[in-house]
């Protein structure tokens, strides 16, 4: 066990975030094992609108986004009651703010304004993470990973959509945006560029992430700027 593992002893709530194909679920599995934490994974393929959404975004955007919002809220309410409230650390492969990111790309202005009103009411009392690990990388790498995992509903995903999504993530996870969108509790941000950090195959890169988590726990990590 590494030094990073040994010193992370208190309850933590960590969100792993980033655009499609960046490795959120993989890192969540790895961290939950190393930190002896509960692994919370978002519901994706169970969304009944998803296949139609990627074939006709304009037609199915609102139904798709509302399904994701309601299911993630229920997941977070459950994990707060059954895990966090009982002192169990949690690593999630999403943060609820991703709903705003995706909805902002897919909904028209009128729909998005209504969606934000519902979002603000429903997420107000949800638990917020202590740490967000923000994974980001070049669009070509993300497209290659999406192609390799070959999920049926992702096969028609355009490069422009992934580029736009990455741009939105950069906006939302900039320090000034964190202060705006996380008004009750600003999480510490750990940005990880997957173009040059291979936490799957390189133990040193994984150790870097664990050490950054440690710095937050020890109170020595400032709010980070995204590089």
Structure description:
A five-stranded parallel beta sheet has the order 2-3-1-4-5, sandwiched between helices. It has helices at 3-7, 24-34, 50-55, 57-82, 98-106, 109-123, 139-149, 159-172, 175-181, 203-218; strands spanning 13-17, 38-40, 90-92, 131-136, 188-193. The chain has 227 residues and is an alpha/beta fold. The chain has one domain: P-loop containing nucleotide triphosphate hydrolases (Rossmann fold), CATH 3.40.50.300. The protein contains ten helices and five strands, in the order αβαβααβααβαααβα. Helix 5 packs across helix 8.
Q: What name does CATH use for the topology?
A: Rossmann fold
Mean pLDDT: 87
Question: Any idea what the CATH superfamily is called?
Answer: P-loop containing nucleotide triphosphate hydrolases
| CATH level 1 class label | Alpha Beta
The biggest beta sheet reads: 5 strands, parallel
- Tell me how many strands there are: 5
In terms of structural class, how would the helical and strand content be classed? alpha/beta
CATH architecture type: 3-Layer(aba) Sandwich
* Cα distance spanning the termini: 29 Å
- Oligomerization: single chain
Number of self-contained structural domains: 1
Give the low-confidence spans: 1-8, 222-227
From the spread of the alpha carbons, the general shape counts as globular
Largest beta sheet: strand ordering = 2-3-1-4-5
Strand content: 5-15%
Distinct helical segment count: 10
Percent of residues in helices comes to 40-55%
Radius of gyration: 17 Å
């Amino acid at each position: 066990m590494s030094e990073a593992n040994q010193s992370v002893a208190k309850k933590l709530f960590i969100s792993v975030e980033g655009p499609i194909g960046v490795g959120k679920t993989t890192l969540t599995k790895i961290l939950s094992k190393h930190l002896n934490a509960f692994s919370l994974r978002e519901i994706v393929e169970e969304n009944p609108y998803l296949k139609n959404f990627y074939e006709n975004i304009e037609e199915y955007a609102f139904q798709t986004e509302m399904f994701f919002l309601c299911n993630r809220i229920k997941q977070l309410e459950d994990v707060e009651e059954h895990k966090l409230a009982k002192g169990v650390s949690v690593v999630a492969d999403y943060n609820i703010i991703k709903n705003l990111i995706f909805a902002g790309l897919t909904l028209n202005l009128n729909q998005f304004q209504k969606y934000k009103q519902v979002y603000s009411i429903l997420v107000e009392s949800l638990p917020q993470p202590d740490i967000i690990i923000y994974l980001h990388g070049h669009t070509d790498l993300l497209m290659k990973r999406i192609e390799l995992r070959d999920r049926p509903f992702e096969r028609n995903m355009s490069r422009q959509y992934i580029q736009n999504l990455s741009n939105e993530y950069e906006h939302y996870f900039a320090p000034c945006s964190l202060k705006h969108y996380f008004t009750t509790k600003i999480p510490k941000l750990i940005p990880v560029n997957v173009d040059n950090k291979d936490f799957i195959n390189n133990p040193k890169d994984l150790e870097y992430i664990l050490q950054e988590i440690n710095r937050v726990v020890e109170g020595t990590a400032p709010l980070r700027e995204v590089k």
